[in-house]
Amino acid sequence: MAAARHRTLDFLLGGPARGEAVLAALRPVFQERGMAESLHIWPDHGCLATYVSAHGSFANVRIYPHGLVSLDLQSYEGEGEGDAQAQEGDDSLLDQVEARMKDLNRDGPGKVKRLPPLVRGGAVDRYWPTADGRLVEYDIDAVVYDEDSPYQNIKILHSKQYGNILILSGDVNLAESDWVYTHAIMGSGKEDYAGKDVLILGGGDGGILCEIVKLKPKMATMVEIDQMVIDGCRKYMRKTCGDVLDSLTGDCYQVLVEDCIPVLKRYAEEGRAFDYVINDLTAVPISTSPEQESTWEFLRLILDLSMRVLKQDGKYFTQGNCVNLTEALSLYEQQLGCLYCPVEFSKEVVCVPSYLELWVFYTVWKKAQP
Amino acid sequence: MAAARHRTLDFLLGGPARGEAVLAALRPVFQERGMAESLHIWPDHGCLATYVSAHGSFANVRIYPHGLVSLDLQSYEGEGEGDAQAQEGDDSLLDQVEARMKDLNRDGPGKVKRLPPLVRGGAVDRYWPTADGRLVEYDIDAVVYDEDSPYQNIKILHSKQYGNILILSGDVNLAESDWVYTHAIMGSGKEDYAGKDVLILGGGDGGILCEIVKLKPKMATMVEIDQMVIDGCRKYMRKTCGDVLDSLTGDCYQVLVEDCIPVLKRYAEEGRAFDYVINDLTAVPISTSPEQESTWEFLRLILDLSMRVLKQDGKYFTQGNCVNLTEALSLYEQQLGCLYCPVEFSKEVVCVPSYLELWVFYTVWKKAQP
């Protein structure tokens, strides 16, 4: 894949860095490759040497006086034979720098760290940070679908190990490997859906609907706002949705392509009552900042309306967020105390394969009437 | 945590980059901060602008003529109040660059990518690449144990979501969250260990031994070469090993702190026969290069000796490797055809929480005698 490859190599020396000695040791590695040096020396902050090659590669050696030496090497590489050679050349440059630094520091307690190269500006984006803000690289090798709907950007990317992954506006939603997500948001196998009335909010990937239909409900109604999510998943997430999205109605299910708020309001007015409401709309908002207040209000509204259409002995299932986002999850749990009726809840922590972080799921039910 | 923070921001413009226009738009962002520019222009490869601040930060703007603009900003930050301000300052620099690039490219199909900052040279290392070579950041917040034994480097690091993680010579071995690993390498709950003779090769974290002892075997023998792994895990991986490592012998188990090869040879000579052999020594070697031949030979030797001490109707369990490493796994499966007796095998793919990749486990058994 044509892209800039950014290699890094760091040395923590375990003692002060002698800038001149480090540069004297490393300079020949760059000179051998015809890379020209520019040097900046700070009075109190060490130095920065920049090296440029004739072919457009460049490197930085940053020497921090307390004992960190960081190397960055960035090269643009395509897919040709010369590019494979260039990649090998870059790896060997790092090998040489590493060897010389180890040699220079052979009696010290130094640590070396070399990360897999960052791939920058390629046609396939492999970096989809976790909900708790960590940098993670996926094994994505192809863009299967990439469209903007009126509501969001919809990507379906192919991962070697997880199958196709649905990514909505940059958030990893679900991969074909993630049956455990669907299982968890349906109550982890502890519920009997046969003959029941089920309402699914969102869920455009069809995973929940597909599993529930197998369990012979009386009627499962799914309300998904975005036709393009349904269309993309019908075509490219078939391990998740099976054939359930091939038609918007079936023996025991219907899909309404609508905003769920007016639907919920209508159902509440009509006095409809469901055995199960499954909210697959969105994770708990990460931010607790005032700007996110509207998101929290939306979330409370959905929760409140959902409780209004839920039978007294019904259950409401939803995802929370990454288990590390304790503040956001607490705030969510506080919201549960502010609904029109008193509720109780339980939570479960689940490992969803493609998420690369542990995820919290909630079960909410109406408190028994005295 | 005091460390260099390396921020990146990339723009894929969707068309050729006009270097002068990009620089003219971005230059004021750096000038406002008193960062001095050095410029390198290639005849055919675009340009590189380097900016240095008085406080030791530096930035690179690399403009590739086909339409990639990459920004790198590296600053050393501690934990003081001024450092928090400096972090905000760096974030706002990226915000401004992003805004100006979007403005410059407002009619184009451009894409912008901003990753979580790389933390370089900190006391706590959060980057432990997957077996298939991807860059992943863990939520590690403390070094619990870090020692070199005669055999390997042993680290136990604390992850907020996974609990303590055992890392041997840079490889993530097991976290306290990873009961599913232990479950899988014991046959995924399908075996009856009661009254059985079990041999565990490696397994110094005590996870397998702890689970097997609960199932009342006749005798479980664990052979682990590294006393320091046992000591570290006894102290810091108690969610994994319980109290089973508090003593090296118990009612129905013993731990031999020895190299397993001579032990296996001795058992084979003595005609010992186990119901289960569980090999928790090492993953399948990733590399299939000739330099790794000795690792493969070691692996074949272990396999062969294990089969010699396995009852005719016994089972051998082991981990394979990341499901993506298809070549290495195939080579491993070929080895299974080269043992002293014919064997059959099955495999299972499991999601081990802290691995951040799907993992293959093998069950091997002797072919029924005709």
TrEMBL record, chains A, B:
This is PABS domain-containing protein. The keyword Coiled coil does not apply. The active site is at 280 (proton acceptor). It comes from the Eukaryota. Residues 126-366 form the PABS domain. Belongs to the spermidine/spermine synthase family. The keyword Transferase applies. Keywords: Polyamine biosynthesis, Transferase. It comes from Pipistrellus nathusii (Nathusius' pipistrelle). PANTHER family: SPERMINE SYNTHASE.
